[in-house]
Design brief:
With 289 residues, the protein is mainly beta. The chain is built from 2 helices and 22 strands. The protein has a 9-stranded antiparallel sheet, with no helix packed on it. The structure holds 6-O-phosphono-beta-D-glucopyranose.
Length: 289
């Protein structure tokens, strides 16, 4: 659908449409915040609050082309997290590289503005509702619309904008066990997480995490539902240099905290005809008074 047609069908009440690097995107604007969601990948690319730096990070070297995921914002990893299962190709699933459709948009009942995007294939349907108000709420509903059982994993792979990795810590993980996929071993978090090397970890927790950023003078609360693993990723020096869509120094100003559902603790899915599943991440920024 063109931007004109999208505007005609869904525009108004704080909802508008614009071009974002060659793809249509829906902008949510209200008294509290502004958010931008690309229909390519159902990818949230911007969340802006007054009186603070942008909450989400986007690489200056991101690709914006059919077939490639964007590097930054909130990629939706689905129907698998990480390496492709046998017989499939592409890391982190394929829906982040597909066009989504608008399903609904308008004033959110809880305040602010929302948009619901839709993706469908023969096996499943996804309804992704993004609500922008004082917080950013990302809700991915998975429906098994096929005739067989649906197995999947996935994540809301949020890239946070930080002032400086040396001024940033992650809190509320004390005592949580994790799989360190760099060292390929299990470990337990002791106290606050300081990042001073490549970090790629799957923390086994349903709980929240907090990003404490003394450079931007803020705390970002990352809450979640329907997720028993929190993935924390920063590529650090060598991996940054290996990625073509990532600047060599950009690891200093980004940090991924993902609400994930990964099969670490056994198989997971929705039986044929089973109830939908929701994966949700809620992002709230605390500023000093
Ligand atoms: C994280 C993974 O979720 O995503 C990392 O834990 C991976 O291993 C990172 O490198 C980025 O993945 P991609 O496919 O977007 O380059």
């Amino acid at each position: 659908m063109t931007i004109e047609k999208l505007t005609e069908h869904f525009g108004g009440n704080g909802v508008s449409f614009e071009d974002f690097h060659g793809f249509p995107a829906v902008r949510l604007t209200n008294e509290y915040s502004s958010a931008l969601i690309s229909l390519y990948g159902g990818h949230v690319v911007e969340f802006i609050l007054p009186d603070t730096e942008p909450v989400l990070w986007m690489s200056k070297k991101s690709l914006f082309q059919q077939g490639s995921p964007m590097r930054g914002g909130v990629p939706i990893c689905f129907p698998w997290f990480g390496a492709a299962p046998q017989g499939r190709t592409g890391g982190h699933g394929f829906v982040r590289n597909q066009m989504w459709e608008m399903s609904a948009a308008g004033i959110a009942p809880e305040g602010g503005t929302f948009a619901t995007l839709h993706f469908q294939n023969d096996d499943f349907e996804l309804f992704y509702t993004v609500t922008a108000n004082r917080m950013l709420t990302l809700s991915l509903e998975v429906v098994n619309s096929g005739v067989a059982d649906l197995e999947f994993s996935g994540s809301l792979h949020t890239y946070f904008n930080i002032s400086d990795i040396e001024k940033t810590t992650v809190e509320n993980l004390d005592g949580v066990s994790y799989l360190d996929t760099v060292l390929k071993q299990d470990d337990i978090q002791h106290g606050t997480l300081h990042i001073d090397r490549e970090i790629d970890r799957i923390y086994r927790t349903c709980g929240s995490a907090r990003i404490k950023d003394t450079g931007f003078n803020r705390i970002i609360h990352v809450d979640k539902y329907g997720s028993d693993s929190t993935v924390i990723w920063n590529p650090w020096v060598a991996k940054s240099q290996r990625m073509q869509d990532f600047g060599d120094e950009e690891f200093r100003t980004m940090l991924c905290i993902e609400a994930a559902k990964v099969p670490l603790t056994g198989d997971f899915g929705i039986a044929a005809g089973g109830m939908p599943y929701e994966l949700r991440q809620v992002i709230r920024v605390e500023l000093p008074d």
